[in-house]
Structures
1.
Amino acid sequence: MNAHTLLTASSLAVLAISTAVGFFACDGEYVAPQSGDFEVAELLVSARAESNGLQVLVAASVGAEGVGAEIGAGDVLLVEDASGASATLRSISGGYAALLDSSATEVELVLRRASGEARGTLALPEPFALELAVTEGELGSTLELSWPASAEGSAVWFVVYGDCLPYPFQRGLQADVGSYVIQPGELQIDPNVSPCTLSVELHRDALATNAGFGDSSARWSGAQVRTAAIEVAP
Amino acid sequence: MNERTLRTLELLFASLLATGSLGGACGPCDPEYTSVTPRLPPANPGGTAPPSFDPTEIGPGECARYCGTGYTACDAVVLAGGLPAVECVQPNMCGAGRRPRGLRRPALARLDASAAWLAQAAHLEAASVHAFERLAAELSALGAPPRLVARARRAARDEQRHAKLVGELAAERGAAAPELRVDAAAPRTALAVAAENATEGCVGEAFAALVARHQAIHAAAPSLRRTFERIARDEAAHAALAYDVDAWLHTRLTPAERARVARARARASARLASAYSAHASARAQLGLPSPEAGRALARALDEALGWSSLASTARATRMPSSAALTIPPA
């Protein structure tokens, strides 16, 4: 027998018996690896910061050895801005998140442990203000969005949602040209839901540089998000 | 194609399904899972007024924005630290495919469970095209034998076919695969490629092949059974490819790195064995294993291939010789 895995007749026999009689019990529950058990360089920390101009939402996921890891074994994950305002990222659905009251266009993700801390910068794209040509619309009207154009090369996309739309309406733009007109009929508005407020959420997304914070192949990104409302009348 | 590896996996799947793998119920089945997504409050300083915002309230329009994928319940919650969030309850699925790094979660409207499963499976199959194309590029950059690179490219073409086939099944049920969004990723080290291959390929695709084989036997409609039979055959070939990639990459890794890959594989397997679930109505239509059977199959696969025991001894793994396999009676 070599040193590698061998599936033998006897192991299959064991398998057949064990599956038949419920040999596999619920012991050995899955335990995720703890970040503190790894060097920072071994961690795959993906992070995203989204600013609405007043607050920054930071979400991160942590991996080690190819699977999701938990922040633990003495580690704390924080977000800080240049003024010193900070918030601790808390566990949320397999990742971590925090909302920081800050209008900063750059925040730092900090992994703090007893032996020191690792820092990485999450740079956000250029801020903007979103204008809607009208704030009360009728079914069948165009809806014009405008914002200051930018040449920084960020990806721009928007999503429109509301209780009178069966599906969110989402579009990516080829360039950050500063305007878009939603044509009549593009929004499948249900006239039976009235009154209806539509939220128009415009995103300016950019990859951020992940310098020296864990595995450098992890994705870091930043976004500016602005949301405006329009009341739709039948 | 390494026929020996493939044949060995096929025999293993046949034996696992023949033995039923129905033991080992692992607590109450939860056909749904709950996810919590942080919610950035709407704001627009200097621009048109944003909608009003109450962190404890959410309407169906915003639920569709956040929850996607055939959600069955949606609620606004405020988490510790005052973080507003959306709690989404969705049907669980444990579908086929090899997920590429950077795969964005899809958004689907509310659908019946079978249609949602097929739409999401079509999405995952399409994502697998990216995963295999990336694997081929990474193997090539790492100096892998051309035959391995060619097999990865062939797998990408298989997944393209699967995406089309499953997409058609979804379309017949009024669903469409959501838009595929995969972020660009930087070139990776042999260790990173090996870890992903171990979790997504050796574990994920082996299990996907096993589930597809189950569906090929138990799906309600003949057209579904034919499609899953074809997918099962291809997915087994992809799992065999993962093992061959694993074997080649091991020659490029240090003993410590091999041990890390083995642990990653064991963790992925353990997670699968504890998390597999399937919505009841999708299960009946699509021939999916019940949660108990699926978890038992995952544990049986782990046991048969020795992932957990190998991780504990930190040894490398290799597919067994087909001569060592015997199929037990059904």
2.
Amino acid sequence: MPIDIEKVAQLAHLDLAEEELKTFGPQIAGIVSYVEQLNEIDTTNVEPAIGGLTPEGETTGTVRDDEIRGSLGQKTALAEAPDAASGHFRVPKVL
Amino acid sequence: MSRQTVEFSVTAAEKLNETLNAFLQIDREGALQRATEIEAGPLAGVPIAIKDNICVKGMQASCGSKILGDYHPPYNATVIERLIKAGAVVIGKTNCDEFAMGSSNENSAFGPVRNPWDTTRVSGGSSGGSATAVAAGIVPVALGSDTGGSVRQPASLCGVIGLKPTYGRISRYGLVAFASSLDQIGVFAREVEDVARVLGVIAGRDNHDATSADVPVPDYTASLTGDLKGARLGFPRTLFGKGLDEEVKQSVESVVDVYRDLGAEIVDIELPNAGYAIAVYYIIATAEASSNLARFDGVRYGFRAEEAHELRQMYSKTREEGFGPEVKRRIMLGTYVLSAGYYDAYYRKAQQVRTLIKNNFLEAFKRCDAIITPTSPTPAFAIGEKVDDPLAMYLNDIYTVTANLAGIPGISVPCGLSSERLPIGFQLLGPYWSEPQLLKLAHAYEQARPFLERPPISAS
């Protein structure tokens, strides 16, 4: 099935230039057809390796006490913002 | 003493950077200041270079990307906290492929790193700056990150040692995420003992990373005994075939002979699904990347595109202008394989084949303690040679991606120079938590066949 490259760009929030659409289209189609070689393999009843953890990693406890801790604070959290205003992140209009 | 060592590194970094482009930031003042303040520790006064996708408070973390070009994280990664406590001094941040996506460092927004053995060639990637900094003698050790071979492959191309530990061995807190189920911080050094020392400092459970495992951290230097009696080394003959450079093949096969002479038993093994690893990797890695990189939207930090009058437009213009071509290509691919109706066909299928690859290794490790392969199919290639063919570039990772998919540790060790005087490396892969065994094997080889050559571009 042909890939609707413009739709994918939209989903990915990428405002791709015409030229990029032209080069990415065939490149991505090429990579997709390469990865489709996986269809040669019978994976009936094979569990997916979601998470990628080792057995020890899977049994490591990840629950911690629910304690109040310090946070970055407003000044530090906003220090790297491209457009901070009055203690907030300012963005262009939403609607 | 430590001030002199640090000053040597900083000066060498500054002097060689014009030629090598290995550093994106060199912190002379800060490093010299810290060198006078350090206390005793296992790494007291050791200068270290850090890949620019690992957060060091007070320094930049661009990830080789325009979108984070001026970003200065307000906290230290856990590995940095541990290094500082052990007395190490961070001298600078190293160049890398944008968001660690690449095998040549040509995807850095700040220009490619140049290989100190031949500056017309790539350093390998994505941690090319760290590999180069160690190879050129600027620092004795450096950190990188390895998602599909990004520590081991540049280590091989630059003639240094590069270790990717078991998934969960080192906390990823403060490492900018690329593909979270594959990413692992790794160590570069010129000597195995230094790798062992640094690993001992940075390994171990961290409450800030739920995937860091609660497994005791041994004294890695204690395993460097040189005693290989009873060691069984797996030899996957079918991986020494098509696509492998003849000189690399011969070089790695001669390493097998060295191990035999050292007392190891060589066992033939099979990894029947290893040939599918690249396909699996480029589904899983891009899917996870498309999700992880969604956070770069021009709101909280980093670059924001001008002239956007509406929020969604601001997102897509910021990302279009902020990301380079390879990152966009991978975000697109990852978005596609995760999009409605395709999840089962691609992502789930890839995760199933990942299980099969993992099982191949578990099966093989019943018969051997480690597996030997080349690290990279060829020595360093020319800058520009593969940039127009993403798939050809991806195939560089054929020997390294399997370790990330299976979560097992791998180490690349230099084993000689090609006829063009370019380094060749071999790789050892081991079972989960077998870092002591891998380091022991690497060290035994290093003692038997020391790699004493130095690149033409080198700190004196």
